Amino acid sequence: MMVRKQELNEFYTRDTSGKLHLNVKSVLFGGYDPEETGRVVEEINTYYRDIIVGLIAQVTQKEEEISRLKAKYHE
After folding, report:
1. Cα 66 from chain centroid (whole Å)
2. Which residues have CB under 8 Å from 36's CB, separation 6+?
3. What does the pLDDT read at residue 65?
4. 24 and which of 17, 36, 49, 62 could share a cystine (Cβ 3.0–4.6 Å)?
5. Amino acid 27: pLDDT
6. Is 32 exposed, middle or buried (0-12, 13-18, 19+ CB in 10 A)?
7. Following DSSP, what letter does each residue of 26-67 receive, concatenated?
8. pTM
9. Tens digits of per-residue pLDDT, 17-46?
10. Pairing of strands 20-22, 12-14
């Protein structure tokens, strides 16, 4: 089963002044539900971690490619 990757804008919105608002349930007196907030923060963390890990993998691959080309050039 393929899991749909969530987009970052599903986790938060910005109002007209640019203030960030998490897309989580609120509780009495207008605060965020702590459990839901924790879940959303983990989702955001995973989103950025996956991007960073992907970029590191791309850099590693490019560095290996550059090394092979340099070695080939110096043969």
Report:
1. 28
2. 24, 25
3. 96
4. 36
5. 77
6. middle
7. B-GGGPBPHHHHHHHHHHHHHHHHHHHHHHHHHHHHHHHHHH
8. 0.64
9. 988 888 887 777 778 888 888 888 888 898
10. antiparallel
